[in-house]
Design a protein that fits this description.
Length: about 230
Amino acid sequence: MVALHNCQNSANGLNQEESASIHLYTMQFDGGPSLYHVLNQSLRAENREDLKPWFLYLKLFLTALHKLPSQTETVWRGIRDVDLSSKYKTGMKFAWWGVSSCTTHIEVLEKSQFLGKHGQRTLFSIQCINGKSIAAYSYFKDTEKEIILMPGSYFEVMGQLNPAPELHIIQLKEIIPPMTLVKPPFPKSDGQKASSIVHKPSTFSPSTSTMMTSMQSASVASKKMTS
């Protein structure tokens, strides 16, 4: 109800429910895990049954994201308390199956709730081609400058840098996948320009259920590397 109250129809063609689905994704909850944390656990799980409770929300959420214009720019994503450099070798290609939250402002990651300034840290520099800016719909509005990378985003590792003993920078480039990994949640008319990555014909239906089946059929190794 709070998310619906805070949202209205948007200039990008989102209705109130679609705007609220993005707003809800960004909200923090007292006394328990946030929606985005639980959702991403399910998206990255090997058991497809874990996704069933999310089908209706995912249909709404992904529809909203696909309606937003795509952003081509460099974004940043930080993972604290871990060194992931050994899992991302230069030249390797992989998909991230979760909803990946990034920022266009690297200084945001210095805050303790994100990357911080101390301890083991992995910083991803990502040249994206299909990022979705959700700042206008976020619970935090302009404070995080958040860009979303959708489930099934596909990358190549371009290089690594270790500028400090506990800081590991990994450079990624979003690229066209070898096949359609996730089909849009709604059909597009002939005259409508696609805002999402759909590169090859696919027999998958646009329903969330079959969309998730295609995600589950991809490499388990890629899923386990998701940050």
